[in-house]
Structures are given as structure tokens and as C-alpha cells.
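for the recovery benchmark. C-alpha cells below, seq after
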């Protein structure tokens, strides 16, 4: 379910050069194809937790996967950038419902001995889905046209519905929570929690970097001297799969040394990767993208750990606030990175991302003192 869900989020990224040409728009404008979805995800993430708490995890997951078919089909008929963005925004409203519902379902229904393994499998699936969506779209455009990519997404969402029907038995431990005043009290408490607020700032910067890099590198790879098509560009996103490796491999060190150490290592790795992307040879560029992706995924693992360690209650709402900031960073990056690319090309984007990584490192060091460090 994680893989099938996250196919939707970044699938058009490998299509951005083609969409920019077809709609005759610049980098900042075409970036809104990604930003419209992440903006909706950011805005709806806090409310998604409230809905899942009230209606039930399984019901919400089934409903969201079923409804995701509709905007995918609408996107196949889009003839303007505005129409495509409207369909993408609708997708973004539905994706957080599955995200929060599945996580809460596992926490409540999975046997304690299997919870960590199941949650890791789900998170790994989201990473694989992020890559597969980009690859699927690139191959679909290479074989026909970009509208075909969204027809395939409609099909994969039907598969997601089937996976939820088979893989989510009816809840046994779920208790409906329909207390809006209690949710408001928890929200105010979270907003007065400095560690959580600073963690949200780190999350904003993390996804800002990831989306800035992978939105604009598609435009760089489509241009001279590389002149790659959508299919080969989709294959470059294989570096994204490193997240499926780096997250479980670094988990023991994160648990032992804490999120501050992990964030510091992530920043250094990301800066090294971004520096390599300034080189012209394609192998060095791809290696730099791989290192930058590893840095971002390690930083994300550190931030998610910090979220849980900075609160004692209201975890669903705290996760919703974090996702609000996290995907808000993606929405801002979709436009700002495009403006930077239009202004001074890839060098400007790399410099922008380096500054964002250094800022994230400074914010984390200030906000995460004493979190998760074991003697």
C-alpha cells in the first residue's frame, strides 16, 4: 500500500521537461505540477488525522484509494496546466488520509513483536513507490504520451484499493474519537512545544532540498549536453531507492547516538553530494544525486525520531503538523527552485539547497539537545 500510494506523489517529476514544452511554461511554472499536490498534502495533513480518528482506519483507507482513481482519470484529459494542477491538487487531498490511517492502523492492530517490521516495510514501500512513479511516468511518456502515465496511476490506485481490502482486516482495537475541543487543546500544546516546532522547521527544509534537486535536475538532464528523454531521466531516479537501504541501515546508530548526530551526518553527506552535482560528467552528477538523496533520507529519519521524542501525547496530530511543514517545504521548493533555475541554472539551485541544508543542521542542533542519546 505504501508503494502504490506514493506512486501518485512524484510521478510527474520525470515528465517536467515534456510538460514545460507542451504547455510552453518556464521551470517555476511547471514545478507547480508537483507543488499543487504537496501543497494539498500539507494543508490537509492535520485534518486527515482527525478524520481517521473519527471514521476508522480501514474505512478511510478504502475510501481514499477508491477516490484517488478519479483525479488520475481527470489528469488524462487535462489540456492546460491549470486543469492538470487541479487534478493533482485533488490527489494531494486524498493521499494524507491513507498515510495517517495506515500508520495508526499498524500502531493499534499489529502485534507488538511485528510492529517495527511492518512499519519499516510500509516506509520502505513509500520510498520504492516514489521511485517507481517517476520511472513509470517516464516510460509511459517514452512509449506514447504523458497522459498515459495518469491512466496507469488510476489502475495502480485500484490495485491499492484491492491491497487494502485484502491486507487490512476489520479493526479490533479502534475507538472512535470525535472530540474537536480535545484536538484543539492538543494543537495549542504542540504549537507551544519548541522542540516540535523546530523539528517541523527541519522537515520543511528537508523536503525543500529533495524537491528542489529532483524537480530541476530533470530540466538539466533534458538540456544539452545530456539531452536525455523521459525514459532515461526516469531511470536516473533509481538513486531514490537508496532511501530504502539507508533508512534501516542507519537505524541502530540513530537509536544509539540520537537525532542530532544523524542530522549532522546527513548535512555533511548532502553537502558532499550537492558539490559533486556541480561537475559536468554524467557519472559524477548521478553519484552526487545519490549522496544528496542519502543525506535527505537520513535527515528525514532523524526528524521523524525527533517528532516522537519531543511529545508525550497527541501523536497523530503531531505527525499531521510535521507533515504540514514537510510537504509545505515541497510546495515552496516547486516554485522557488524553478525561479532559481531560470535565473542562474543548476549552480543557483545547488547553492540554494546547500544553504537550506546548513540551516536545517543549525535548527536541529538548537532544538534537539538531549533527544535520544543513550550512554
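predicted aa per position
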Amino acid at each position: 500500500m505504501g508503494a502504490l500510494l506514493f506512486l501518485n506523489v512524484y510521478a510527474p517529476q520525470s515528465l517536467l521537461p515534456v510538460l514545460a514544452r507542451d504547455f510552453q511554461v518556464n521551470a517555476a511554472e511547471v514545478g507547480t505540477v508537483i507543488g499543487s499536490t504537496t501543497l494539498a498534502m500539507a494543508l490537509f495533513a492535520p485534518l486527515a488525522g482527525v478524520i481517521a480518528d473519527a471514521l476508522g482506519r480501514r474505512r478511510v483507507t478504502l475510501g481514499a484509494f477508491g477516490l484517488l482513481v478519479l483525479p488520475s482519470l481527470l489528469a488524462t484529459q487535462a489540456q492546460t496546466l491549470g486543469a492538470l494542477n487541479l487534478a493533482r491538487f485533488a490527489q494531494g487531498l486524498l493521499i494524507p488520509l491513507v498515510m495517517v490511517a495506515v500508520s495508526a492502523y499498524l500502531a493499534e492492530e499489529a502485534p507488538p513483536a511485528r510492529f517495527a517490521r511492518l512499519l519499516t516495510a510500509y516506509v520502505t514501500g513509500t520510498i520504492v513507490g516514489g521511485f517507481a512513479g517517476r520511472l513509470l511516468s517516464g516510460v509511459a511518456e517514452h512509449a506514447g504520451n504523458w497522459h498515459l502515465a495518469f491512466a496507469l496511476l488510476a489502475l495502480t490506485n485500484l490495485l491499492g484499493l484491492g491491497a487494502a481490502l485484502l491486507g487490512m482486516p476489520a479493526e479490533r482495537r479502534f475507538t472512535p474519537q470525535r472530540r474537536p475541543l480535545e484536538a484543539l487543546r492538543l494543537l495549542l500544546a504542540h504549537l507551544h512545544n519548541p522542540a516540535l516546532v523546530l523539528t517541523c522547521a527541519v522537515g520543511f527544509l528537508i523536503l525543500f532540498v529533495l524537491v528542489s534537486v529532483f524537480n530541476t535536475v530533470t530540466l538539466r538532464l533534458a538540456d544539452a549536453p545530456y539531452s536525455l528523454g523521459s525514459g532515461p531521466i526516469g531511470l536516473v531516479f533509481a538513486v531514490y531507492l537508496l532511501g530504502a537501504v539507508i533508512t534501516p541501515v542507519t537505524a541502530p546508530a540513530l537509536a544509539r547516538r540520537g537525532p542530532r548526530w544523524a542530522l549532522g551526518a546527513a548535512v555533511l553527506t548532502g553537502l558532499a553530494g550537492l558539490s559533486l552535482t556541480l561537475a559536468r560528467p554524467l557519472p559524477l552528477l548521478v553519484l552526487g544525486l545519490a549522496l544528496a538523496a542519502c543525506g535527505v533520507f537520513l535527515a528525514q529519519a532523524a526528524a521523524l525520531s525527533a517528532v516522537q521524542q519531543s511529545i508525550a501525547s497527541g501523536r497523530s496530530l503531531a505527525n499531521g503538523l510535521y507533515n504540514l511543514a514537510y510537504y509545505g517545504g515541497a510546495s515552496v521548493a516547486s516554485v522557488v527552485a524553478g525561479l532559481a533555475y531560470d535565473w542562474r541554472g543548476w549552480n543557483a539551485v545547488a547553492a540554494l539547497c546547500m544553504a537550506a541544508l546548513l540551516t536545517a543542521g543549525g535548527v536541529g542542533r538548537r532544538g534537539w539537545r538531549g533527544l535520544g542519546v543513550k550512554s
